[in-house]
């Protein structure tokens, strides 16, 4: 059973509704998208610009069939820092471009051989737990933010819950926006909002794109070796995100428009971001959570969020104002969004009637949960393979090598027939 739609993927909400709906996605992605460049010493405005532009390119390549937003990828933080120290920011940009090129190589392989092998590699017993840990692995961030002002976080989350359950009409489909605004106003009464950054910000400032500053990427093979291999981990995460979105909207997005198109789009966006001076991009779990809780699946809404992100990269005061949203407010929002992602993974297991009385299935799920939520870190040469990526890979390998019990069919689960089919 899929979520009841308010707006489907192809629907175009009226402008009076589309703008606030788009702002919900901006609020959902903004904190994490800005955090990555802050941690890696890159330019936040450039990253915000590249994020919006990359999302529009993603929708162009996928023909608007996948309502996803592309934001900064956390998986690249450590290698970008290491590459920047060793080869400078311009060398690191080359590593990011190379990461996008890895996406293009995998796109070519899938375009040639197809996706039939995914039915064997990604059955529900792997997909369900991987989707769950995508949400659960983010929960420490939500709790950390909420803990900096629990009352504010609970008020924010409470507004979202009340709006989602009891609101009528249009208010019912903007609970994230209502929660953010309501939580922000409450945070002001608690003295948790610092307006100083707004006062010091200019109204207009052109992003420091490499094509403007002249600090173009330079070839640094060491930076390529540090950054590019991380694309393997983020592609596994992209598969999980695409399955979550497909499950949420009730469509088989793995085959139409196709995983290869998604990887192509993500690769092009990442290469463009690196060329402009931004950071690598990935589909965002936060925005998938917004889809699930609002049931607004319109790609036009996501595209509107991308346009707003680009505009904000030029309007420094507005961007500064959004950055004043205190962490407890973001914590209250993400407590719900991240939990929603995990719940979609649980639904995948239930709808596919995965038999967890089977020792084989129980072992696969248990190991994926422990490795993913525990944040396993596997050092490989000069970089690390950590979190959801290695948990997913190990789960896939276990599914392939562990013998099936006599009463198990080739495909685990009977409702959807395959881990890559939408419910």
UniProtKB/TrEMBL annotation:
> Which keywords are on file for this protein?
Membrane, Transmembrane, Transmembrane helix, Transport
Keyword Cytoplasm listed? The answer is no
Recorded superkingdom: Bacteria
Q: Name one Pfam family in it.
A: Xan_ur_permease
What membrane topology does the UniProt entry give? Multi-pass membrane protein
| Location (main, coarse) | membrane
| Transmembrane domains' residue ranges | 21-39, 45-61, 68-87, 93-118, 125-143, 149-167, 174-195, 215-236, 301-323, 329-350, 362-381
Q: What Gene Ontology molecular-function terms does this entry list?
A: nucleobase transmembrane transporter activity
Cellular compartments annotated: Membrane
**What NCBIfam families does the entry give?**
ncs2
Q: Tell me the protein family, please.
A: Belongs to the nucleobase:cation symporter-2 (NCS2) (TC 2.A.40) family.
| The protein's name | Permease family
